[in-house]
From TrEMBL:
Belongs to the quinolinate synthase family. Type 2 subfamily. NCBIfam families: nadA (TIGR00550), PRK09375.1-2 (NF006878), PRK09375.1-4 (NF006879). It comes from the Bacteria. The gene is nadA. It comes from Halobacteroides halobius (strain ATCC 35273 / DSM 5150 / MD-1). It is found in: Cytoplasm. Binds 1 [4Fe-4S] cluster per subunit. This is Quinolinate synthase. Keywords: 4Fe-4S, Cytoplasm, Iron, Iron-sulfur, Metal-binding, Pyridine nucleotide biosynthesis, Transferase. Pathway: Cofactor biosynthesis; NAD(+) biosynthesis; quinolinate from iminoaspartate: step 1/1. Iminosuccinate binds at residues 23, 40, 111-113, 128, 196-198, 213. Its cofactor is [4Fe-4S] cluster. Its main location: cytoplasm. [4Fe-4S] cluster binds at residues 85, 170, 258. It catalyses: iminosuccinate + dihydroxyacetone phosphate = quinolinate + phosphate + 2 H2O + H(+).
């Protein structure tokens, strides 16, 4: 059954000149068949550079939208229409415009986990792997950081600039408690704990390393530790294990699961390629402004 689906995907991919991009939180079998797996920055870069005509995005809506913004002449497909990021829904254009009036001198830095319309209202985008770098590179001293309050605080703690926070958050990472870290540290004081900056600041402070999913994978590869505890969505365990078969990885808490990232199946990918659905498009007016915010980010990040 699974082998059948994989064969179909490979055949359809060739027929349609398609590439499959998967986020590091996707289910194991989807990551296994993807042409590229990565964090939000890596996925945006790959979408912008690919020669394929069709991009199948195994992730959540804002990621496919970013691909459609960066590659306007390609067909971008989101196999599961309902895969959305709740954090991206915690800010609207109307609310952002109101806040901008309150802080007219601030540069708006928008986490990629946001809608195209919110990106279009922002000066520049960032991801969890380059947020500090982007804020530092901007020639303004006051930053309105939206929508993730935790990533915003992570940046605020690493810059001398004034960072005004929004009140959005990732429901998955926000569930991690300082207690989850202290309990594990007490039981296993020698084991390193690495977390995502979408975790609360009090959790981040207790961790041994903080990074985007790609940075966490890199850290694990470089580390000499045989056991590592990970505080990010459980999908990361697939690539951690694939890349480091001799090391052991443990999830900090079993609450670290994002239902939206688990929606896309191999069957959905077959349907997406057979029926060219669900195509993600962005109106030109919004797209051009959002593209400028994304392009500026890509130019500034190494
Ligand atoms: P990164 O893979 O960019 O670290 O993003 C995490 C995330 O929550 C995406 O939804
Ligand atoms: Fe959104 Fe968090 Fe899920 Fe990422 S893990 S898609 S930020 S809810």
């Amino acid at each position: 059954m699974k082998a059948n689906l994989i064969n179909k995907i490979n055949k359809l991919k060739e027929e349609q000149n398609a590439i499959i991009l998967a986020h590091n939180y996707q289910i194991n079998e989807v990551q296994a068949i993807a042409d590229y797996t990565g964090d939000s920055l890596g996925l945006s870069r790959t979408a912008a550079q690919t020669d394929a005509e069709v991009i199948v995005f195994a992730g959540v809506d804002f990621m496919a939208e970013s691909a459609a913004i960066l590659a306007p002449h390609k067909k971008v497909l989101l196999p599961e229409r309902n895969a959305a990021c709740p954090m991206a829904e915690m800010i609207t254009v109307k609310e952002l415009r109101k806040k901008k009036k309150q802080y007219p001198k601030a540069a708006v830095v928008c986490y990629v986990n946001s809608s195209a319309a919110v990106k279009a209202e922002s000066d520049i985008c960032c991801t969890s792997s380059n947020a500090v770098e982007i804020v530092e590179a901007i020639d303004k001293e006051q930053i309105l950081f939206v929508p993730d309050q935790n990533l915003g605080q992570y940046v605020a703690d690493r810059t001398t600039k004034e960072v005004i926070l929004w009140d959005g958050y990732c429901r998955t990472h926000h569930r991690v408690r300082p207690k989850d870290i202290t309990e594990v540290k007490n039981a296993h004081p020698q084991v390193k704990i690495i977390v995502h900056p979408e975790c609360k600041p009090e959790v981040v402070k207790l961790a041994d390393y903080v990074g985007s999913t790609a940075q966490i994978l890199e850290f694990a590869k470089e580390s000499n530790d045989e056991k590592i505890i990970v505080g990010t969505e459980m999908g990361i365990l697939y690539n951690l294990k694939q890349n480091n078969p001799d090391k052991d990885f443990y999830l900090l808490t079993k609450a670290l699961i994002c239902q939206n990232m688990k929606m896309t199946s191999l069957k959905d990918i077959v349907c997406a390629l057979e029926e060219m659905k669900y195509q993600i498009t962005v109106d030109d007016e919004i797209r051009l402004k959002a593209q400028s915010a994304l392009d500026k980010m890509l130019e500034l990040s190494n």
